[in-house]
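Page 42, continued from yesterday. The earlier attempt failed because a stray header line got pasted into the input along with the sequence. Redoing it now with the clean sequence only.
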Amino acid sequence: MTGAHYIYILFIIVILITMIMKKDTVVPCVLGVFCLGLFYTNNIAGSLGAVFNSFIVSLGELGPVILIISIMVALSKALETNHAINYMIKPFSRFIKNPTTAFFVIGIAMMLLSWFFWPTPAVALVGAIFLPVAMRAGLPAIGVAMALNLFGHGLALSTDFVIQGAPAITAGAAGIEVFDVISQGMPLYWIMAVVTISVAFWGLRKDLKKGMFREELQDVEHEEIKEFNKNAKIATFLVLIGFILDIVAMSVFDLKGGDASALLGGTAVFLIIIINLMNHKKKCFDVTCENIIEGFVFGIKIFAAIIPIAAFFYMGEVAPITSVLGEVLPANSQGLLSDIGVALSNTIPLNRFAVCSIQTVVGAITGLDGSGFSGISLVGSLANVFGTAIDGSVGALCALGQIAGIWTGGGCLVPWGLISAAAICGVSPIELAKRNFKPIIIGFVVTTIAAMFII
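This time it went through. Structure tokens are written below.
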């Protein structure tokens, strides 16, 4: 542990206190990067440059998400012209009758798609289709974002049963088979999911009964269009066929993550052009440009405050801090966040209670960078050490650390990790993170206690 590690810990505490006080965290994040720069460069000019360069790194990391969200919003603007959006979602109204059915239908659809294609491309598809009909059924935009987030970036990504990227990383680091992580951790996956989602929905229902979202819902629930022109029907057909073909291509060519998002985004761009050509003929060029501008204005508005926040936490990883400040980390360092997790694990005596608690805490700490995946190799390694030391289940310990890392950083707890769901629903990432905080912490506590008996 060096001075940089203690600076990083100090600013993590300051940021958490700032969030508890319900204040924006941009300023402490900027100051954190500046102080790290000052520690390593010993000059103010280099530290100021580090702040700007950390923003560039953050923008590079978040850029693909900003692009896909902006393009999907631009597509929705094109579809609004002749009410094609309304026509598109009409069939779903027969299944979604109230906030409860809306929340769980959206969640299950998101979970299934995320298992096969990962959450980032899935959230754009599911969010764009279900948001209007869910709000008309009485589920506010924040509720839609929670369903997308908890079922997709939480349940589906932390289990990753189909693609098996997450369990492959933890299993590889622990020296066991992927099947062992999935099978031994199965009770923990579902305990976390059921507890967290139940608590989150219960809290949302309480606020709905209090009428907290009445004004927001009144703005959308009375509009009903009974007749649609030919262009609306053709546009809906084109979007449906386009995205179905995308899903087939993702499966056939094994596209996931960024590649899947790229395919989805490219398809959306061409759909915008074709739909505007049908609707506006000679004005197609101008209207398409307007749609793209509207989409990017929306995307930048949502992400502007997230970029400097994420910049600080990206500095906890090896590649970003090296990109900003050069080769400043010791040769044996795994990054500031991972080093802090290892140091924590070495300060506490080992027993079932301590081991499970450490796995959850270390997993959550390494998830603070917003990726969810950068630290799960560390918890896999720790699971091997801890499981051997106490003669416990290495697979279950892997799953526990995996759950903590991904539910924290994969897109449910830290605001810079859940921006895709927040953006597609037009809600604040900070507000969504606050909504998720209590349910996820309760889920962590219950799952960790369960793990003490399971391992």
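Notes: The chain has a mean pLDDT of 83.
Reminder to self: strip header lines before submitting.
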